[in-house]
Every structure is written in C-alpha cells, then in structure tokens.
Amino acid sequence: MEHDFTPIIKAILSKHFGEDAEDLFEKSHLLQYINLKTVSATRGSKARSSFANLYAIYVLAEDYIYNEFDKKGDYSSYEGVQFSMLLRRQRELPFGRKLQNHALNHRLNEEFRKFFPQCDAQPILRVVEAKRYWINEKLIVLSLGRKSFNLVRPIIEIIDAYSEMKQASFEAFIKTCLKLKEVSKKKGEEVEDFVSGLLAPNVDARIFEIVSYAILKHFYLDQIVYFGFQLDELEESPLLLYKTGRTNAVDGGIDFVMKPLGRFFQVTETIDVRKYFLDIDKIERYPITFVIKSMDSVDELLQKLRDGAERLYHINAIVDRYMACIEEVINIPTLQERFRTCVAQGYLRAIMKEIVLQSKVEFNYEWSDEEDAEEE
Questions:
Q1: What's residue 205's pLDDT?
Q2: Cβ atoms of 140 and 61 closer than 8 Å
Q3: Residue 2: how many other CB atoms lie within 10 Å
Q4: What is the model's pTM?
Q5: How confident is the model at residue 254 (pLDDT cuts 50, 70, 90)?
Q6: How would you label 89-103 residue by residue, b for 16+ Cβ within 10 Å and e otherwise?
Q7: Using an 8 Å Cβ cutoff, are 131 and 22 in contact?
Q8: Of 129, 227, 253, 327, which sits with the fewest C-beta atoms within 10 Å of its C-beta?
Q9: Quick check: 198 and 341 in contact, CB under 8 A?
Q10: Which residues are CB-contacts of 55 (< 8 A; sequence separation ≥ 6)?
C-alpha cells in the first residue's frame, strides 16, 4: 500500500540501508504494518492517528536501543522491561498523555495478526505474571542473502517523523480555530463554512463527535422544561448537554447526557445493527439517541437499522423491542440545520470556543501562557 507518508518511510530506510531499503520495506511485516498505520499523516487533524499501537512499538524499540541490543546482541537473555515503565514513557510522547494499556497488552498483536495472518510472529512478547515485555526480534532483525539488518533505529525515526507531522497538522487546526473564533463577529460566514466543513462523512470520528457536541449543546440550551414535586412549585430548567468523557472511551455507550431529562446520546459512524443493539443492551435497553455520521435521511437510516435487525433476529417482537429503544436519530443534515439555528441565535462564537476547548482536551494539546491569557 502506497500513500503520502510512504516516501518518507522509504527515505529513512534508504538513509540507513541504501540500495537494500526497498527490499527490506517489502519483506518486513512490521514496516508494512507501520506503513498502514501512518496513512493519516498528511490528512490533517481530522484523520485518526493510531498513536496507541505505534507508540507500543516505539517504547519497546526505544528500550531495545537504550540497552544497546542492536549493537551487542544477546536480546534473548534480557529479563524484559517493566510494563509500568513502558506506559509511563508512552504518556510522555506527543498525544500520548491519555493512552491506556490496551495496545501493549493485546490490541497491537491482535491487529497485526489481522493484517498479516500468514506471519507466525507478533510484535509484542510478554510474561503477564512478571509484567515484563519484549519487542519480537524476529520482526526487527531481517536477513537479505548473507546480510543481516536491524530495523529498530529506522522504526524510531519513522514514528518520530509521523508524530511530528501529526503534531504540526493539529497545531495548525488549533490555530485556525483560535483565529476564526476571534474574527467570528466580523466574518461569520467564513466561520460557518469552517464548522460546516467538519460535518462531513469523511471527517474523523473524534472531530465529528466534538463538533456534534458543540452544536447540540447550544441547540438545546434555550429549551426550557419545568420540573418540581408539586404543581405550584415547578421550576424552569434549561436543557443542559454534558459530554461524558473522551471520544472512543469505554463508557457503556453514552457519549452525551442531557440534564434534567436524562437523555442518552451515542455518536457513531456505522450502521452495523449489532453495534447499535450492543449499545442499547449495555444500558439495559434505556432509550438512546443516535447521532450518525451519515448524509442518509433519518427515514433511510431507521429503515436500514430495521432491515438489519430483521436479518439478525427474524422475530418481530424482538425487532420492535430494540427499535423502540431508539429515541431519535440525528444525521448530518439535522446537525447542519441545528447549527444554522444556533448561528441565528448568536451562538457561533460559543460553538467555536467549545470546539477549540474539546479538541485540546481530546488531543492533549497544551495551552500556552499566551493563549491562557487571551481566553481569560
């Protein structure tokens, strides 16, 4: 697979291995995997970055180099690196502050096997009881004829180059947001176009979730309900939407929660009925609103879900029970319409500010002192 970052990978290999670089690239399953995981390098901040699995490789390769096994060999006698050291190092890397243990423990190996089922090696070796980890030397030391090549240092350089490119891309995104937020009163149409451009089927799921939240939060803000325990003591309460955590979090299928109605919202980019019904089951079939990254009409989406449910269950009573749990479907056209409503109500700057804030949280972007002062 060739993509925009592939020439950078090959250039780094050429720097280290000269005319053997191309053959090593073709032969190495690990380089091929890294090539697959860096496809988003030039696709901007909206593209998924895959840092978790790449950084799992990175920290183990880094430990290998730190102990000079690429020079002295004898890696088979190494006692292994402690898990806590690997996780701490991952979180020191750009965009790594919130990374969890999943890539180191199983996700990297599982995905690698999915891409290369014919390969009998997996990237990470570990002893669970001792919490010791090794990179699989079979994947980083390759032979071409009588010559042996160690790929560990080029792998570090490749992942560094990818991280730098993604960091520059996201910083450009943040700067654009900040700039547009500042000029939104004078150039509202330009800002509207910017936000509208983030409501598209090809936008990264995390950006789509952040923008959806910013729009829906302000769309519901002016809507009032009345609550109280006695009819003569009812109180006005605005509808407040809360984001329950980071995107792609293991949160039981709840991305947003609305107070005081207790509505649940789940943002998704798939119409796989199994995924929808799993979310419904996880919250004990509590009614849930799905925000779907699709241009299909709401009726079309509901029909696709029903068709999928009927293929899966064949029993009308089961299908009806699941479908009844879908409180509302919000698609991209609905979000666009609600965004225009929010703009008409004067919330454009507030929406931009929310997008900037949530993006910084999601991507672990650090506020500078200057930006802090501007926000205050």
A1: 74
A2: yes
A3: 9
A4: 0.63
A5: confident
A6: bbeebbbbeebeeeb
A7: no
A8: 129
A9: no
A10: 90, 93, 96, 99, 103, 159
Residue 253 vs residue 262, higher pLDDT: 262
Amino acid in the structure at residue 183: V
Nearest to 55 by CA among 102, 113, 6: 102
CB 22 within 8 A of CB 7: no
Which parts of the chain fold into alpha helices (H)? 6-17, 21-27, 29-37, 51-66, 69-72, 83-92, 102, 108-115, 137-140, 152-183, 188-197, 205-221, 273-282, 298-313, 316-324, 332-344, 348-362, 369-375
- Tokens 């225009």 belong to residue: 340
Cβ neighbours around 40 below 10 Å, total = 21
| pLDDT, tens digit, 9 for 90 and up, residues 26-67 | 999 999 999 999 986 555 444 456 788 999 999 999 999 999
Q: Which two tokens stand for residue 145?
A: 């004829």
Residue where the block lists tokens 């293991």 = 250
Predicted pLDDT at 376: 39
H/E stretch holding 20 reads none
pLDDT-derived band at 373 (thresholds 50, 70, 90) equals very low
Can you spell out the DSSP letters for 57-68? HHHHHHHHHHTT
Which residues, 6 or more positions from 251, have their beta carbon under 8 angstroms from its beta carbon?
Answer: 244, 245
- In this prediction, residue 142 carries a pLDDT of 95
* Tokens read off for 360: 């910084």
